[in-house]
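We now fix the convention by which a protein and its fold are recorded. The integers have meaning only within a learned vocabulary of local backbone shapes. A record is reproduced here so that you can trace the correspondence yourselves:
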Amino acid sequence: MFYDEFEANVNWVEKPWAHNWATDVPEEWGLPYGMTKKESCTESGGRLIYNCGFDTAGEILTHLLPNIDGSTVQPKDLDWMSKGQMMKFDQTEFVEFWDFGYTGLAEDGYVYYPD
């Protein structure tokens, strides 16, 4: 792999999905915040957050945080909605207007603020 030559700490996970951010949301929650259902994981276009049964954010944090002194990764908390807020924000303010079409960003983004 390319990164091996740099002795980088890379965790390569290969999945058969299109360009998207895979999540693992329990079915009883429905599909919040414009997520697309599991059958769409191999399709491109539309929203880029898909419920594919894989916790991308959790995998990234589990890989990165143990490599930072003093950090710990807590087990996945399925009750996150009662412990903070998911808020929508305007991403267009972070990109020059004439470049926005080339960034791949949607006009809106989401951020979670824990209590």
